[in-house]
Please model this.
Amino acid sequence: MDFEILIDDIYIKLFNQDQLAPVHNKSILSLLNDYEDKNWRLAKFQDYIWDHIALTALSEHERTKLIGKSRSILRKAAQNLRLTDNQNDIGRGSELAEILLYGIMANHYNALSIVPKIFYKQNNRDNVKGADSVHIVVENDNDFSLWFGEAKFYKDINDARLNEIVKSVENSLSSDKLRKENSIITNINDLESLIEDTTLFQKIKQTLSDSNSMDNIKPKLNIPILLLHECAITAQNQEMDDDYREKIRQFHLSRAKSYFTKQIHLLSTKITKYSSIKFHLILFPVPNKDEIVEKFYQDANYFKGQNNG
Model:
């Protein structure tokens, strides 16, 4: 992993005296970029985004076809981005958060990019909605888990924002949305290319079949929720030291506790088999959202060839 892992644990170990329930199905991951010469390493962060953009902006067939052609990969991937010029659009930079989540899924969770969402949003006449990322993790015992992610990039993660995220997660967990995601997985060629074990491939197809009840699938379901967020602590800091780590640790733990409290209150009785679904809150602080998004857009336009003369 290119970034420092500050927190990586299940909720109950981090808050062992907490009375909140159910928490056995919840975990927290906090990641930090570092500093150099008293500055947050923006170039390192942007490199990570562009190093992993192909996982969501290109199909498996295109990624394979372009192996060894790094510039072609970047150009092709950039062409599939849908960028907004509206500076006030709260969703501006959402593609960046999606790419970051795909990178984290690959590097930290060893997940396979089954449905590259930016690719399908750009290339399908009917925009692919629902989850911001779709992955499968192959387990040790010839089994698999299913991962449908949420990716947000906000200027803050106050309680109002956390309420919005809970609502977004609730919407993504409707049986109709889950069934559509499963249908996309089983009807694309990428699945067979990525799952080489024919027995496991058939097991995945059968499990995600439209004839199978969503109740049977939920024990395999994981929801990673990436909160890429602007952070005053990070903006005011100048080096990666223990003081900074502790401040971010306490802030992220407080936000995680607040988020899961809201999620349990709003969803635990609404979502069938809620306690069977695993939720992974991923927090990543940045000093300035606007600066990061603007640099990402500049790079995207460059790779698209718009500034090449």
Remarks:
- The chain has one domain: 4-304.
- Residues 124-128 have pLDDT under 50 and may be disordered.
- The beta strands are 4-10, 26-32, 35-36, 39-40, 112-115, 133-138, 144-154, 221-230, 278-286.
